[in-house]
Amino acid sequence: MSTVSLLYSVCQYTPDVIRNEKINVAIVIHCPTKGYEFCDIFFIQNKKRLKSFDDEFDSKYINVVFQQLTYQFKYEIESFNEMRDEYSENYFDDINDHNFIENRTYYYANEFSFLEKKTLVNIPTNEISAYIEDLKKTYLYYDFPKKERITKAEVQRLLKKEVKNLNLIQTKQKTKDFFNNEVFDFEDDSYSIKALTLDYKQLNTLEREIKILHSDLITNRQTLRNKKIRLVVKDAERFQHNLLIAKKLETELNLLDLNVSIEDISNVITEIGYGT
Questions:
Q1: What is residue 142's DSSP assignment?
Q2: What gap in Å lies between CA 251 and CA 136, rounded to an integer?
Q3: Are residues 48 and 107 in the same domain?
Q4: Is the pLDDT assigned to residue 137 strictly greater than 80?
Q5: pLDDT of residue 10
Q6: Per the domain annotation, does 154 fall within a domain?
Q7: Which residue from 28, 115, 217, 225 lies 20 to 30 Å from 130 (Cα-Cα)?
Q8: 66 φ/ψ angles, rounded to the nearest 5 degrees
Q9: Residue-level pLDDT at 275
Q10: Distance between CA atoms of 165 and 154, rounded to whole angstroms?
């Protein structure tokens, strides 16, 4: 089965740079893999939510910006010639470049800006559409009816899949909890990696998850002392308050001679060398 990488970046709208309040308005998704290359941008459809966020919302201005972004990011062979003139026919020559998104987003900095590009690796080609839908549901969450919105369990599943997609060689000896379940999503002789979701609206739910993890790590403290424990999270910038709660766990465990770090999944991918 062929696999590809998907690179993506979220576009945020900030009506007032002083207040610095932001809302996700689009997501760019790019596949640089030859033979499967594409790029597309998906916009917020719930304009009522946009208006409630910004009571000075200018629909005409927003539409102009969205049209410009469509021109920059929508790469479709079928409609390419219809959209472009002779001066821009080479505009997508870098479609296979891993810096394709950065090449077009670096100058967006005020009302519209793009978050740091993230990478999903080893995506089976027959699952590309499913991954795109999951990304849309994650970052354009309120565009979907309640019954269709991505659940916390699905977010956790996606995060675990990203860890497993690193294709690392695991050790046979696994760390187990009280019920004989594996504590980590990946383990080798040097590292123990676990996906930790921060996407909880109820803080007591997050705190309960952290207490369970704390207990599991303390129970296995002797066998984990010589390993680096990496608790990987996704999009920490979106959940700063929840991240602070998780950081307390990191501090407490390090005081007990455990080497624990909370890291963004993209950093782990880049360090291991699968992010390019």
A1: G
A2: 34
A3: yes
A4: yes
A5: 93
A6: no
A7: 115
A8: -65, -40
A9: 40
A10: 16
Q: Last residue of some domain: 120, 149, 178?
A: 149
83, 71 Cβ separation under 8 angstroms: yes
Whether residue 241 lies inside any domain: the answer is yes
- Range 182-203 average pLDDT: 82
In the chain, how many domains are there?
Answer: 2
Task: Work out the pLDDT band at 267, boundaries 50, 70, 90.
Answer: low
CA 276 to chain centre: 16
Assess contact for 41 and 28: CB atoms under 8 A. Answer: yes
138 & 201 share domain: no
Task: Report yes or no on 141 lying in a domain.
Answer: yes
- State the residue range of the domain holding 261: 164-272
Say yes or no to pLDDT of 73 above 90.
yes
Residues 218 and 126: their CA atoms lie apart, in Å, by 41
pLDDT band of residue 270 (cuts 50, 70, 90) is low
Alpha helical stretches, state H, 76-226 = 77-83, 100-105, 128-139, 152-164, 203-219, 221-224
